[in-house]
Specification:
alpha+beta; Neuraminidase; 2 domains; four-stranded antiparallel sheet; 3 helices; 20 strands; about 35% strand; secreted; disulfide bond; Olfac-like_dom; coiled coil; OLFL1 protein
């Protein structure tokens, strides 16, 4: 009986010992697996490190090779540069020798050739002058001698604006364009309607689809020609009666700087005289001097341009009359306006600086001065006043 009890007590004990031994064997196997994994990782890291060292060595060798070749290229470049400079020097010496022998052996022939070139140039200039006269249908035999009087027709609007008649039409309508940026023309039946106190009620309002910029617009043959606002050099041809844009063009070289220093709001100044439509503007390439461009008002094509010696510095306005540019100058603070530069496109030698033509009586400045070839008068806008100047002309000498 006692032996049986001992047997039952030993069985759980032995079972516990066997379980513990089994767990110890499992832990030992896990530790062995982890140890092998670490050994494998260490071998991989060591191999990676070895590869990195090999890459660094290869890169150093490559850098040395590249630097060596660059040094060789610099040396070759210096050698080639020296050879080119030597060749240029030899070419220069050879050219001087050729020039010398040519001048010694063929001096008489060269003189004859030069004389022939001068004669040919004179003939070409004479032909060009004939072509210009035919193109412009030049019939002007008078020149401006002075400005006799002025008449302040009305005072309306701000500092900038323009007013005019259409010299290409028989009607007596007056057109008012107020401001340096706007899109409405006021049309009056005649100058008496314009002079009335309630003149705006008597006017026909003509809206434009595209606003103007500056004050250099003109009305000719029933069309308004103006510089389009926010464009550099686009000129619009607007049919006043039909109220639509008839044509447009880009004026080469224009619109980058003001045409006149004292009227910076105007980049392109359009003008009309006995020969039709002109454009006046300044260019940086001419040092700020004025450029004249003849425009065909029908086709809106440039016919010819002239660079003038007339400076835009100190200028406030200009106008064309009988193929001649007249530039009006003033003081920055305003004063007595005067014409100080004349340029005849048919006779560049007939250019006059400071011809001594002064505007009468009035002190101030002009926003615009436009010539009316039909009435031989100047229509000007000065400090909000609409002014007419009568001209005194003389026969050309």
């Amino acid at each position: 009986m006692v032996v049986l009890q001992v047997h039952f007590l030993l069985i759980p004990f032995l079972m516990g010992i066997m379980g513990a031994a089994q767990y110890l064997m499992q832990d030992a196997a896990l530790l062995s697996y982890i140890d092998q994994r670490f050994l494998s990782l260490e071998k991989r890291l060591e191999r990676c490190n070895q590869d990195m060292l090999e890459y660094v060595d290869e890169f150093r060798d490559f850098s040395k090779t590249v630097l060596s070749r660059l040094a060789g290229l610099n040396a070759a470049k210096a050698e080639v540069k020296g050879e080119v400079e030597n060749l240029l020097s030899r070419v220069d010496h050879a050219q001087r020798d050729i020039d010398y022998f040519g001048s010694v052996t063929e001096s008489n022939a060269c003189v004859e050739v030069h004389e022939d070139l001068v004669k040919q140039q004179l003939l070409e200039e004479a032909e060009e002058k004939k072509r210009l006269k035919l193109m412009l249908n030049a019939s002007c035999d008078h020149v401006l001698a002075g400005i006799r009087s002025l008449k302040v027709v009305k005072k309306t609007g701000g500092k900038h604006g323009s007013w005019m008649k259409d010299p290409g039409k028989k009607h007596t309508k007056i057109y008012l364009l107020s401001g340096s940026v706007n899109n409405v023309i006021l049309e009056f039946a005649n100058i008496m309607a314009f002079m009335e106190n309630n003149h705006t009620l008597r006017a026909r309002r003509v809206p434009l689809p595209l606003p103007w910029e500056g004050t250099g617009h003109v009305i000719y043959q029933g069309f308004l020609f103006y510089h389009r606002h926010s464009s550099i050099n686009e000129i619009i041809k607007f049919n006043i009666q039909r109220r639509n844009v008839a044509d447009q063009m880009l004026l080469p070289g224009a619109g980058r700087i003001p045409a006149y220093q004292l009227s910076p709001q105007t980049k392109i100044d359009l003008a009309v005289d006995e020969q039709g439509l002109w454009a006046l503007h300044a260019e940086p390439e001419t040092g700020g001097n004025l450029v004249i461009t003849k425009i065909n008002h029908v086709t809106m094509a440039v016919e010819r341009s002239w660079d003038t010696p007339c400076s835009s510095k100190g200028a406030e306005a200009a106008f064309m009359a009988c193929n001649t540019l007249h530039v009006v100058y003033n003081a920055p603070s305003g004063g007595a306006s005067r014409i100080q530069c004349l340029y005849d496109v048919l006779d560049a030698l007939n250019t006059h600086i400071n011809p001594g033509v002064h505007f009468p009586k009035r002190q101030g400045g002009h926003s615009t001065v436009h010539y009316n070839p039909k009435e031989k008068q100047l229509f000007a806008w000065g400090d909000g006043s609409q002014i007419i100047y009568k001209l005194h002309t003389e026969l050309k000498v």
